[in-house]
Predict the structure of Radical SAM protein.
Amino acid sequence: MFSPSVIFLELTDACDYSCRHCRASATLSPSPDTMGHEKFEWLARDIRRTFGTGMAVVITGGNFLMADSFESVIGACRHEGLRVAVSPPASRLLEPALNTLVSLGVSSLSLSLDGGRPATHDWLRNMKGSFTSTLRYIELAKDAGMRVQVNTVVHGGNVAELPLVLQVLREKGVDVWEVFFLIRTGRGTGVPQISMEEYLDTVLWLSEVGRPLVRTVEGPLYRAVKANRDAFRRMAGKTYRHLRETSAALGIEIGPSPGQVGTHPHGGTLFISHSGDVYPSGLARVRLGSVMEEDLGTVVSRSEMYLPPEVSSHLRGRCASCRFRYLCGGSRARALTETGDYFGEDPLCPVVL
Ligand code: SF4
């Protein structure tokens, strides 16, 4: 049976941020169908029964710190032997909660930084001062002994600033850089998308970053590029040159590193919403079932065709006949959002067959 690399648990769809690209279109009020803490605690046991101890769980939202259940759910996950990371916005609720999170056994925290300049980040997050808060919370989390991951959504308005983001991450000693390629869903339909050429140039440059550890989300071409760098470098365009030149001007050393990791094909994740709906990821909104009606193992075993590795056998369009289909396979979330076909080709892919 498919076993995810990580399971995202959305404790609430309420949030004190109102980001322009929010997949959940989160508002200040939680939806009335939000599961209670007993159901989330049952789910922690169900995850352990289905996938065993050691499964990685990311507690997310909305802003999960707005859910009354967060301490009991994290406690239940830890009790079941699950590894717990958290993904809050850079909210004022975070600072007073940091020590509680550490004492509950949370060892890893991710924050978003979506631009190298305050105005760029604050625009996407729709919150003045968010850039400054984010840098402060990165420092506080590092001081608290947590492993810190930074997430960056790449879009048409910030792709040129990625070397500036990288400079900040290196200065702050960030451990992992998770680079998301925009999926225009929820409130994100108005955010500018990058071009095919910018997609290729960005993953090519990311394949040379080396430090911090880079992972991509909805950027599966990264795996194909890492495995075939010389061939893809011959296709490099002006954005790649800009990213290289800007990195050099900032004094950032880059170069291939064997220590990097790529994404899992098609995500390799599961996402369980605040109301118990199960999806392949938070961005690929194909509802596989609900833990309000069935246990997780039943939902997953009935849904194998939507999940790795079986999804590779159902691809359509260019992805179906592409030599990189097992390394890359295209973004299922982008295919679904842009074409309505979960198994269709990735519309951002620059590869000509
Ligand atoms: S055609 Fe599909 S599988 Fe091939 S490189 Fe493009 S996105 Fe990846």
